[in-house]
Amino acid sequence: MITGVTAKQNPFPGLRPFREDEERFFFGRERQVDTMVNKLASTRFLAVVGTSGSGKSSLVNCGLRPALHRGLMASAGPAWRMAQFRPGVDPIHSLAEALAAEGVLYSGHKEDVPIEEIVETYLRGSRKGVVETFRKARLPEGTNLLVVADQFEELFRYQKLGTPDGKEQYSISETAIAFVNLLLEASAQPDCPIYVVITMRSDFLGDCSQFYGLPEAINEGQYLVPRMTRDERRASIAGPVSVGGAKINPVLLTRLVNDVGDNPDQLSILQHALNRTWACWEFHGAEGELELEHYAEIGTMSEALNQHANEAFGQLETPERAKICEKLFKALTDLGTDPRGVRRPLKLATLSEIVGTGSEEDVKAVIELFREPSRAFLMPPAPEPLEPEKVIDISHESLMRVWERLRRWAEDEANSARRYRRLAETAALEKTGKARLWGDPDLQLALDWQEEQAPTPTWANLYGGDFESATAFLEKSRSERDHELAEVVFERRWSWARLVIILPTVGFALWSWDAGYLDWLLKWAQLVFPKNLKATLAAEGLQQAQTVAALRDLGKSLSDLNRGAAAHGSAFLLALTCFLGSYFLSYFALAYFGKLVFRRLAFAKILHKVAISSSKAVREQKLAEQAQALAEQAQALADPVDTLQMAYASFWRRLGAYVLALGLFIVGLVTFFVGLA
């Protein structure tokens, strides 16, 4: 990490553009400035267009503006007032603030009504609002006004921030149309010396066709920022070093020129690498030349930005702020429309709601850390106050492509967005009966995602869908899954718990058998089937056996004795049925009510344990405990003596378990037969 006291001003701005007061450090663009001045003099509307990182804003700040102050535009003279701004969410309000700034059109305003409100009223009242404001200022004769709309693409990128639900809109708002008309009308007044300059990324040129008159103005006044030649790149490196009071080793200078190549997108990364190399040189005493060793220490162009961002992340004081930082950058980055990453500006209030944890002050603290002048990873620049309606944005797309941690976060965010969209779509289909509730593994994956990411309604608005319906669908699916699993666990536990009913019932049945309960039932059954039928018939037969004919009747009566014996068997079966049936009925009744009581006492606890066990944190804890146990076992096995002891210990434990099980079986068998006896 590079720290220490800076002895000299660092001549390289890093990711942020050059400011006008840093003109002395701006080299390599002299020929381009002359062309821009000539184009602006002839059209009064100049559109500086180029790819991201091509140096558009720096070219205007340190090239065009100082040239106008020096009187390079002979037809206009050197008297200039300049109002520079970024459109943001409310471009007319931003323009009003720039025009009302001290020293632009007005100085020392002391009225009760703020000058910003007066200027904004003029701008919103007519498409000639800029012209009227300029004339009412009554500036000295020969004074010109330059209006610079920096990063004009914000007019398109910030559209969804102005909608109530935060979703993308494909029609230009009335405010944006009025804003463009103000600029076009101001530059079209020949009797009013107002000049308009916009800087815009070239990939937004097609969006300009949504405005009447703007494509024509851009076609006439467009200046496409060209690539820097090798000599210009060398001058842009060696010049600032020399002005800063240092020298650069020729080997390092050649290495830097070669590393940046012909890709204009690398210019911002080059400036950042130079900023870090200068800081490293100062940290080592600021003596001698800037050497290749300094450049290698900061990671060269390929790793300097990544290392610098990781240093900032490492300075976060608490794990909570580290989590806030992760969620903040995830929200500001969009991989859905461009695999390289697209910036997604959001208001501070919206970011605070998306983060969900921590206070707004914690969010501000993280933003301040990443937007301090030595880094400038986030916008707005450090001097501007952070208010709830202030738009927060990543300063340059190169951060999304170079910072590996942010790249992983962005990919994780894209996966979360896809998972949420699928969840929301399924929830909508389930409402109409076209889909069923989720089950594992889809359900568990969604629950793990919900537990890990903790999505909020504000975050869900970034991707559409009904967040409340999606979460209700997920909860409903989880509840049904948990009840099914709890039922399985409950039935398994009840299969053991009902032994408490079975064993006493069987034991009581054996005891009542031995106590003569069956004999009592048999006597009761003989009321239906008389037991002494055989003896009665025999006595009557002997009394009547006086003759041979009577003896024949006796034989007939004896045949009736068999029917009496059958009646006796029926009585026994009836008694046995009543004996066993009473205990079966008792068992089923006790089992039914016992299960109800057991469910009332245990099911809620089982359901709670099932719900907890499905948590990702709990599963990871169990896996960690199992891994620790396996590691301890492996460590023990590593010692041969311990291995032998464990083997013998395992053998005796198994043998003891077998003996104990066999003994319990014998005791139970003996008890059963004793009960029968």
Keywords:
5-stranded parallel β-sheet; 63% helix; disordered N terminus
Report on this structure.
- This protein has helices at 30-43, 56-69, 91-100, 115-125, 129-137, 154-157, 174-187, 214-221, 230-243, 250-260, 267-283, 292-297, 300-314, 319-332, 348-355, 360-371, 397-402, 404-431, 442-453, 457-461, 467-497, 499-514, 517-526, 533-543, 548-613, 616-637, 640-676; strands at 45-50, 80-85, 144-149, 194-201, 222-224, 333-334, 342-343, 346-347, 378-379, 391-394.
- The strands form three sheets. Strands 2-3-4-1-5 form a five-stranded parallel β-sheet, sandwiched between helices. A three-stranded antiparallel β-sheet has the order 8-10-9.
- The chain is built from 27 helices and ten strands.
- The longest helix has 66 residues, at 548-613.
- The chain is elongated and about 135 Å long.
- By secondary structure, the chain is of the alpha/beta class.
- Helix 3 packs across helix 4 (115-125), helix 4 (115-125) packs across helix 5 (129-137) and helix 24 (533-543) runs antiparallel to helix 25 (548-613).
- Among the domains are: 29-224, Rossmann fold (3-Layer(aba) Sandwich), CATH 3.40.50; 403-497, no CATH class; 499-618; 620-676.
- Mean pLDDT is 81; it is low at 1-6, 162-170, 531-542, 544-548 and 557-566.
Outline:
This protein is an alpha/beta fold and 677 residues long. The protein has helices at 30-43, 56-69, 91-100, 115-125, 129-137, 154-157, 174-187, 214-221, 230-243, 250-260, 267-283, 292-297, 300-314, 319-332, 348-355, 360-371, 397-402, 404-431, 442-453, 457-461, 467-497, 499-514, 517-526, 533-543, 548-613, 616-637, 640-676; strands spanning 45-50, 80-85, 144-149, 194-201, 222-224, 333-334, 342-343, 346-347, 378-379, 391-394.
